[in-house]
Structures are given as C-alpha cells and as structure tokens.
C-alpha cells in the first residue's frame, strides 16, 4: 500500500527524501534509466513531502488503485505503475517536475474514457485530476472557472441551477477537457461552436513543470493549438470558459425505433432535414442534436438490428413539430417524447449516467468517419454487414453503429483558421463500437469489422478526404486525417511542439509526432493484434 495524506517526518528524513527527489537535471541523463521504475512507495515518500495535505499516491496494492484506473474501454489500456491525485492546482507542476526529473512517463486524465490505441504505449504515472472539480461562476455572469477534473453532468447541473449553460460533450459521465482539447462536439454547438470555442483562458502545466496561462493575449499560438490538439502540449489544471443564459426551462425530445425496412426512408428524410449537407435552412440551431444507431433489441427482433433515433430541440413540442413531421410519417415500432430540463436530456436520449456509454469494463473497438451527407446505399450496406457479423459472432450483440448529426450554425460562424480543430465542415459524425466482454480470441474479428465499416463510410463519400474526429480515433489514422490536410496546420503544430514540448513527453493521445520509443507497446500488451508498428508510424 502506498497512500499519502500528509507525511509527518523528522527534519533528517525530510532532508534525505528531498535529496532523492531533487528536481535538478539528470547528469548525462542517467536518472532516466536508473530511477524511472521507482516503486509507488518511494514516490509517495519523496514526492509526498512537496504536495498539499489531501493529495494521494496509490500503488497497485492499494485498495483504491483499481477504482482510480478502471476504464470505460479496456481494449487499449495504458500500463499504470502508480496514481498520483493532486488536491490543488499548485500540486500539478510539482508532480510533473518530479516525474520529468526522474524519467517517469506521466499521463493526466479525469474520467478515463479515452479509447485510442496510442494510450496502450503508455507505461508510467497516472495523474488523476478528479479532485480538481471546482465550478465557480464569475460575478459578471459571463464566465466560469472550472477545475481540470470536472465532467459534463456536474457542469450541466450546477450551471443550469444558477441560470446558465455552457458547451460540453454529449455524454454525462465524460470529462469536460478530454473532448474539449480535441475540439469537443456537443448539443450546444449550433449556438456556441465546438466546446473549445468557449475557452477564454487555460492554466497549463508544460512538460518541464512550468505553469503558464494561455489565452488570446498570452501565448496566443499555444492557445490556438490547445483548441483542437491540446492533448499534445500540457496538463490543463483549470480554465475560464464562457457561460450563457440558459434560455427556455425545458427541452423537447423525441425518440423513434424503426425496423430495417424503413432504413432508406429514414436517411432520405435526414438528408432532406439538413439540406443534403448544406447546414443553412432546415437544420436550425434549436434542433440541437439528433443521433441514431443500429442496435439489437431482442424484444423486437433476435435476428435483425433496429434503427434507434433521438432528436432534441431547445424549446417546446409545438415549435419542434414541423421539423419532425417527415419522421413521424415513417411508421415506427415505438416512439417516446417529452419536455425535460437540459441536464436531463442525456438521460432520455441515450447518453446519460445509466447508459451503455457510461458502463465501464467492456471492449469497444471503434473506427469513425466524418461526413457531410448520408449515403443511403452505404447505410444499407453497413446495416447488412451489422446483421451478418452479429449472426457470425453472437458475442458482439451489444455492438452499435452510431450516426450523430449536430446543428452547425455556431460552428460555421467561426473562422476555421482560428483554432487547431480542422473539421468545421463535417456536420455528420459516425462511428462503430464493436462491443463485447474482453476476450482476446475475438479481437481480430472486432478490428476487421470496425475497419470494414469505416471504409464503407469513406468509400460512400468519394469527394471527401477521410476525416477523423480525434476523440473518436482508433489510433492508427494519419495525423492529417485527425489534424487537417492543409499543410500549414501540421507545420504550425509541429513548430509549437518543438517550442513547448521538445522532448515529446505528451505523445500518448493521438500525437502529432508519434512516440517512436514507447516503454509499453501495442505488441507487448496486445499480442496478435498486429497494429502497434502501424500506430507508431502515423502520418509518415
């Protein structure tokens, strides 16, 4: 066990421990090879002396270690040697300085929802940000200070009760910053853009442990990079973010379940709804978000998937109804609707705390594609493949093929050159999640199915270069598909990388510069999957 609350030590022990924990540079880099496998107990005794009273250090033998490292998706799992929980923002630079001085790789996270294969290259210290959960509305009512560990449900509820909203991801249990540093898609983007468009300033700890403030006036180039490629540059300990009057008291939602014979009609109606990819007109910002999935519901059919679809509208049923008439005309197995406050919308539309999206422990093998319009023929091919694979592999019954359609007015209104987020023209976001109990014998089949589905989407949009929303990336996609094909984008990002993280310590989450010498590799952690080398050569 290696748990730290506060160390009461003699002055002699204090001096001895601080000597071991000295942040002085390594002579000839030797400590990077001699001290990078420190036991968690040693880290607790050395680092703990420098941290605030309520910090924790957990090792694998500690009873809290499992709770701190459990993941939504264990398919690609970072190897965690120890967990350090900072209790204050001031703790984080000290943790990073200690880890860097001792050659210990470090990875900051809050809710552990990352799904990319590149995470499995990590082997070191997890910095658990979950205790940094402050939410402070500023006196002018125009912004809030948020801790680096806050997550969607808490933000939505606290701001709503005070009369405000802000942008966040669509799933209640997911952290704010994980999605936001990759741009961040959410239900309010029709009004306010992607989540990172609401950033005002970020408090960032760099790889060398330096704490800086990043905004439009302080380190503006880094501020640009943090809005779409932020995982590559630092640990965000807190941020100031725009907030907005909450508006209407309730949002209207409606969900449909259709059988497969209605597939063509559903996607034709959806394309008409957003004018075949032109976001002006019908796809107004009030119809904030609609999403569908192919899923198995045995009470309806044990052999064929059904089409589940949900719409959410910021307003009343009467206001929403003209936009739903075309979908009401398609005979459904069942529908459900109602008006609820905004924080309850995730729960009624399939992304709440009790949804499968917040159920930890199952494998979710995924591949995404960004689109402008649904190719109806492709959607039929993907559906038929879904049924075929479920019949072949009954263990994959919980798999879903997901189609997300966001209101886009607020995203389109922002100059794409003002942030590192490159995909403002892709309103449709699709992905497959092949879901099953961990079983290595099924991994190859899961990857093959997911890849085939992604390839069908891309083949069905031959006029588009393949795009990858970085937060949904599998991890073997090219850097261009994640960060943009315009040459200046990656050139700028790599130049900033050389300036702010020259040793590429932030290289475990879909990096712009691959980690070419990971301590933990795909091959060693996941024998037989044969994807490690491909992942490490992204973008080359």
UniProtKB/TrEMBL annotation:
<dbReference type="InterPro" id="IPR016169">
    <property type="entry name" value="FAD-bd_PCMH_sub2"/>
</dbReference>
<protein>
    <recommendedName>
        <fullName>FAD-binding PCMH-type domain-containing protein</fullName>
    </recommendedName>
</protein>
<feature type="signal peptide">
    <location>
        <begin position="1"/>
        <end position="23"/>
    </location>
</feature>
<dbReference type="GO" id="GO:0016491">
    <property type="term" value="F:oxidoreductase activity"/>
</dbReference>
<keyword id="KW-0285">Flavoprotein</keyword>
<dbReference type="InterPro" id="IPR050416">
    <property type="entry name" value="FAD-linked_Oxidoreductase"/>
</dbReference>
<dbReference type="InterPro" id="IPR016167">
    <property type="entry name" value="FAD-bd_PCMH_sub1"/>
</dbReference>
<comment type="similarity">
    <text>Belongs to the oxygen-dependent FAD-linked oxidoreductase family.</text>
</comment>
<feature type="region of interest" description="Disordered">
    <location>
        <begin position="519"/>
        <end position="540"/>
    </location>
</feature>
<keyword id="KW-0274">FAD</keyword>
<dbReference type="Pfam" id="PF08031">
    <property type="entry name" value="BBE"/>
</dbReference>
<dbReference type="InterPro" id="IPR016166">
    <property type="entry name" value="FAD-bd_PCMH"/>
</dbReference>
<dbReference type="GO" id="GO:0071949">
    <property type="term" value="F:FAD binding"/>
</dbReference>
<dbReference type="InterPro" id="IPR012951">
    <property type="entry name" value="BBE"/>
</dbReference>
<keyword id="KW-0560">Oxidoreductase</keyword>
<dbReference type="InterPro" id="IPR036318">
    <property type="entry name" value="FAD-bd_PCMH-like_sf"/>
</dbReference>
<keyword id="KW-0732">Signal</keyword>
<feature type="compositionally biased region" description="Polar residues">
    <location>
        <begin position="519"/>
        <end position="528"/>
    </location>
</feature>
<dbReference type="Pfam" id="PF01565">
    <property type="entry name" value="FAD_binding_4"/>
</dbReference>
<feature type="domain" description="FAD-binding PCMH-type">
    <location>
        <begin position="76"/>
        <end position="246"/>
    </location>
</feature>
<dbReference type="InterPro" id="IPR006094">
    <property type="entry name" value="Oxid_FAD_bind_N"/>
</dbReference>
